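hey so u asked for the seq, here:
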Amino acid sequence: MPTNEIQVDVEGRTLKISNLDKVLYPRTGTTKGEVLNYYASVSGVLLPHLRDRAVTRIRWPHGVQAGSFFEKNTPAGTPSWVRTATVPTTGSRASRSGAGSDGDTLTFPICDDLATLTWLVNLAALELHVHQWQVTKAGKPRKPDRLVIDLDPGEPAGLHECCQVALKVRDALAERDLTCTAVTSGSKGLHLYAAVSRHRDSDGTTALAKEVAEELQKSDPGMVTATMTKAKRPGKVFLDWSQNSGSKTTISPYSLRGRDRPTVATPVTWDEVEAGAEDPLGLEQFRFEEVLERVQDHGDLFDA
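ran it, structure tokens below
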């Protein structure tokens, strides 16, 4: 066994963990061991957000200063005990790994337990992205159970402007009898989630999110845009309604981001969003140490 590899028991599964001292975030010196510890520590609130959802990973084998790649299919060497689901591509494409693909389908891992989570993170999968739909026990895709709107600021707009627009989105969704939850993206903006009944397909939730985005663009064109064209985004908050497409994914709450610092997609309260709307420094993106403290103090604010 290589000197940089150890065997660990995770909930009855034996895993080989390697390169614990490898620095994955050079700016902060954050190591792979610290990343594994974060995911293990936060798993109690993270796993419910991953459960029954196909997981697309972004991997940084040599740290965030080096290249990354998307991976949808299960990679070669996937343990036999990892739960998987083979689903239609619905317009998506496999990652550079060809394992697990079969024509117009993709075979995703389903991350329902700590052993699977640890296995994925050991592969330097810093980011975990999921669809807005789940799969059945048999692996068949269900209709979406939630709607998401991604608030993406165009410079010089930032999180402050996203918070201001988030309040408008909250009100627009409330008019449609939908209650939403705010999550900082861990990057620049905010994600707003609303639970929906499963009577709509992905086209239906996409249309609803687009309707809200275009309504707010019409009422406040100086601050809001629903247009994909990046040239029309500077100084505005883009309401990305397209992530409700059946083939698209959004960073999971409590997932790390592959940025220069180990920031996390973090559920926040509406009081925090309102503070961010009033004060440019009222809300900032959270680092993983802060997230662990928040979870210890408040539990999962997504369900608060």
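The two ends are 46 Å apart (CA to CA). The helical segments are 32-50, 114-122, 159-174, 202-219, 270-278, 288-298.
lmk if thats what u needed
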